């Protein structure tokens, strides 16, 4: 691609975003006043544009910060921002700078507190599936164990926003397919690096989990996050295809590469108690996509709010909050990352129904809600800078530590 073609491609991205924002500025949300005119867009990198605009939502003024990402540009890609372990957190700006991203937004909802289980450590791990650089990190917790607002009808913790190896963004659903096998028996695997396991199951924890305690995985039930922790648990450590250790209580601390720790609760614990040190055990796991046959380069959890250009039925139109979202257009070749401002003047935010409408008016055909409130953060580099700047004002006054985010990378 010539230098002139690169400038033209970036110009088309700017033009497309400004056209969408112009349309939004002349339109209204349900029960809302028109938005103000948008200021000029800023090129962050070839194929990446930052924009900010204000709108008058039903509950008050809101300010949106948007990164428009053109995946048709050969030097632009998206990937997961994360601290190197599932059960670990960092600020979005630190994650972006550590991974040399030119921009990004916060990601999935996560295990932020454990006030309902005194003495149990909050892991900080995310709710949904996660893939980074083509490598599976974790699967989804049961729906009843999630943190965040109520899911729209027909959605689940398995829903993801991701980009395939074909460089197209998609909304999908990823289910865990795995098993724990001995020469005599085979048991379906109930979880992979998850802060909550289904009742009666066995879950696998690998080095990707980190060093956080695994006790939280045996607390709550499939339908009630606050339910007591199970009193029937067992843990088995497998290395080189054989059991090397076992105990009645889930542990903590780093897990060595090539080692898998199996945690069981109820029926799963009873199954694990049959294993002895030296027994042969095979653990297998993968994430299976409901819709795409293209392998994913990265995925992050959340939930869909817009599909095929139409808001999902049953979206909440009452509760307002500071929110973040990801949208896709042009067959997944263009991605819009949005985060609302959390400063006092704009803190009323949007309802989920309004968020879906904003993403649609920006040109998104499909859109996905990410974690909001104090987690909502959007970062981008200034032209020529080597580190990112936080573009919105996090509602807590400072950046919150989060488990992951969507990173924008440019080789140009």
Kindly describe this structure.
With about 400 residues, the protein is mainly beta. It is built from four helices and 25 strands. The chain has helices at about 5-25, 90-100, 265-270, 350-360, and strands spanning about 40-45, 50-55, 60-70, 75-80, 105, 130, 135-140, 160-165, 170-180, 185-190, 190, 200-205, 235-240, 240-245, 260-265, 280-290, 295-300, 305, 310, 325-330, 335-340, 365-370, 380, 390, 405-410. The protein has an eight-stranded antiparallel sheet. Strands 4-25-5-23-24 form a five-stranded antiparallel sheet, covered by helices on one side. The protein is globular, with a radius of gyration of 22 Å. Residues about 1-15 and about 30-40 have low confidence and may be disordered.
What Rg, in angstroms, do the CA atoms define?
22 Å
Strand arrangement across the biggest beta sheet: 1-2-3-21-20-22-18-19
Total beta strand runs: 25
- Shape type: globular
Would you identify the regions where 5 or more consecutive residues have pLDDT less than 50?
Answer: 1-15, 30-38
Distance between the termini: 12 Å
Q: Secondary-structure element sequence?
A: HEEEEHEEEEEEEEEEEHEEEEEEHEEEE
Task: Count up the helices.
Answer: 4
Give the helix/strand class.
mainly beta
What fraction strand?
25-35%
């Amino acid at each position: 691609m010539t230098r002139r073609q690169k400038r033209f491609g970036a110009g088309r991205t700017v033009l497309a975003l400004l056209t969408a924002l112009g349309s939004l500025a002349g339109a209204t949300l349900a029960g809302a006043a028109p938005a103000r005119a948008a200021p000029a867009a800023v090129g962050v990198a070839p194929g990446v544009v930052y924009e900010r605009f204000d709108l008058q939502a039903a509950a008050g003024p809101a300010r949106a910060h948007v990164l428009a990402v053109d995946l048709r540009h050969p030097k632009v890609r998206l990937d997961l921002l994360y601290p190197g372990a599932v059960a670990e957190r960092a600020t979005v700006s630190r994650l972006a700078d550590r991974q040399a991203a030119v921009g990004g937004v916060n990601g999935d909802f996560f295990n932020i507190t454990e006030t309902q289980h005194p003495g149990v450590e909050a892991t900080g791990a995310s709710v949904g599936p996660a893939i980074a650089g083509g490598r599976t990190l974790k699967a989804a917790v049961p729906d009843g164990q999630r943190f965040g607002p109520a899911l729209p009808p027909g959605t689940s913790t398995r829903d993801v926003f991701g980009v395939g190896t074909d460089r197209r963004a998609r909304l999908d659903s990823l289910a865990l397919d795995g098993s724990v096998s001995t020469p005599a028996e085979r048991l379906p695997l109930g979880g992979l690096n998850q802060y909550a396991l289904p009742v009666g199951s066995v879950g696998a924890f690998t080095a990707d989990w980190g060093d956080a305690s695994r006790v939280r995985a045996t607390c709550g039930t499939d339908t009630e996050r606050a339910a007591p922790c199970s009193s029937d648990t067992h843990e088995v450590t497998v290395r080189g295809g054989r059991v090397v250790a076992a105990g009645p209580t889930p542990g903590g601390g780093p897990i060595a590469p090539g080692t898998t720790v199996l945690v069981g609760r109820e029926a799963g614990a009873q199954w694990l108690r049959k294993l002895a040190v030296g027994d042969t055990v095979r653990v297998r796991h993968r994430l299976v996509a409901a819709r795409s046959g293209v392998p994913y380069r990265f995925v992050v959890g959340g939930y869909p709010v817009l599909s095929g250009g139409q808001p999902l039925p049953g979206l909440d139109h009452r509760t307002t909050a500071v929110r973040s979202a990801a949208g896709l257009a042009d067959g997944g070749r263009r991605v819009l990352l949005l985060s609302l401002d959390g400063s006092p003047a704009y803190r009323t935010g949007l309802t989920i129904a309004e968020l879906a409408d904003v993403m649609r008016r920006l040109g998104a055909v499909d859109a996905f809600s990410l974690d909001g409130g104090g987690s909502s953060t959007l970062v981008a580099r200034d032209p020529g800078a080597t580190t990112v700047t936080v573009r919105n004002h996090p509602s807590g006054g400072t950046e919150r530590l989060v488990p992951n985010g969507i990173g924008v990378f440019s080789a140009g």
